[in-house]
Amino acid sequence: MDVEQIDLKNLSPDELLEFLSGMGKERFRCEQLLRWIYKRGVTDLDEMTDLSKALRSELKQKAFISDWQPEVVETSTDGTRKYLFRLDDGHSIETVRIPMDNDRATLCISSQVGCAMACDFCVTGSFGFTRNLTAAEIVNQVCAVAKEGAINNIVFMGMGEPLHNLDNVVRALKIFYATAGFDYSSRKVTLSTCGLVPEMKELGERIVVNLAVSLNATTDEVRDKLMPINRKYPLDVLMDACRRYPLASHRRITFEYILIKDLNDSLADARRLVKLLHGLRGKINLIPFNEHEGSPYRCPDEAAIQAFQTYLLNRDVVAIRRASKGQDISAACGQLKGKLDQQQ
Q1: Do 82 and 93 touch, CB atoms closer than 8 A?
Q2: For 82, 146, 231, 294, which has the most beta carbons within 10 A of its beta carbon?
Q3: Does 122 qualify as catalytic in the annotation?
């Protein structure tokens, strides 16, 4: 009877240690393996020359290390690169590398195939939910893109709702943070949620990560329309959860606010937003809506965007306008997958 092999990238550092201990191996072997896999990017066990031939042979019987190459890459004139990865079961996900100042880069990664949250403005939401990504499928996005250059920050803002796949996301975060793994500071990783209140509490209890909340409205009426999750966890419940979230010292919750013309971009909305954030350690990311085919929503004009931001700034609310990147490629989450699916 064949024994199913384990992908070592599916194991958190503690799980990898337990796996090796079960083989009777010493603790330091765990760090050796982590360094080979994540710091050196090696996927062939035979290349891990500081492991004995006997250990390599035993590992090959029980485990393997997955390795990804993108199926499609689109590059914007501003340097943004979007990758489509084909999974073993034939499904696909997207990852975006966003260039920043001083030759730095942020990687936007996916946590699910599709999404169950059905937000009305989101392309991915129109696909419906297929399945969660494994920890290996989450970290492989970073491994694959890192072959092209350093990645300074990671954001869980791609396809899927990270808190709907909490166990695998936490497992991936532990790999990101491990000193012998990717060795990212928790300050360099941000997780965005539409507002799954119980899972927000669990996340805060299990691991440290920058939290971003996709808000996008200042009334339950509008948020119900844009984000069905609001019918289960309305604004007062969500904001209470934000106030209870265990923030590390000198950190803020980021509230993402997609500005949509004639829906949530008025000064009355800005006034309500100030009130919602009262007493919270938070900041606002203002995101002009990225128009896409099939959507009834439109981006506000420049004057409305500036007026909204100015109102917040004049009331001591940190409000950052997020620069739109990759406008000349399929940069909005789900656009590349949707375009390729139509061609098939």
Answers
A1: no
A2: 82
A3: no
